[in-house]
Amino acid sequence: MKRVHVVAAAIFSGDRLLIARRSPTKAQGGYWEFPGGKVEGEESEIVALVREINEELGINDLKVLEHVTTDSHRYNEIFVVLSVFACATAQRPTRMISHDMVEWVGRERLEQLNWAPADVVAVQRLRESWDRYLALLS
């Protein structure tokens, strides 16, 4: 079974969180997720995260605040290890490579969305600690 290490950013701006919907032509198409991508070679998680968010969304001022969770999920023949980090930005996305929609949402909207299975644990942790993450922004 192929093992893939993925990093994702739970990006806060003010009291809103950036989420992205996978394009229908991509794996897990139509599901919402936190944007990010694969860790390449010997990259650290943080280096990979900053690179991926710049490549995928055009955001180049990402500030990584802290680790939220690392969880794993099996998709058919792929075993995904997903590390999610709380982040902040003052920018708005300028492009979408793997997504057909991005949205800034509040805590109450998180439970209303169809999340990619690998992101569900991170969503729960973010909802539970929302106020603490907002305090890290100041």
Summary keywords:
alpha+beta
Word description of this protein:
The protein contains 4 helices and 7 strands. It has 138 residues and is an alpha+beta fold. Strands 1, 2, 3, 4, 5, 6 and 7 form a 7-stranded mixed beta sheet that branches. A hairpin with a 2-residue loop joins strand 1 and strand 2. The radius of gyration is 14 Å and the shape is globular. The model has no long low-confidence stretch (mean pLDDT 94).
Fold blueprint:
Layout: E1 2-13, E2 16-22, E3 32-33, E4 36-38, H1 45-57, E5 63-75, E6 78-88, E7 99-105, H2 107-110, H3 120-128, H4 130-136
Parallel strand pairs: 1-6
Antiparallel strand pairs: 1-2, 1-4, 2-3, 2-7, 5-6
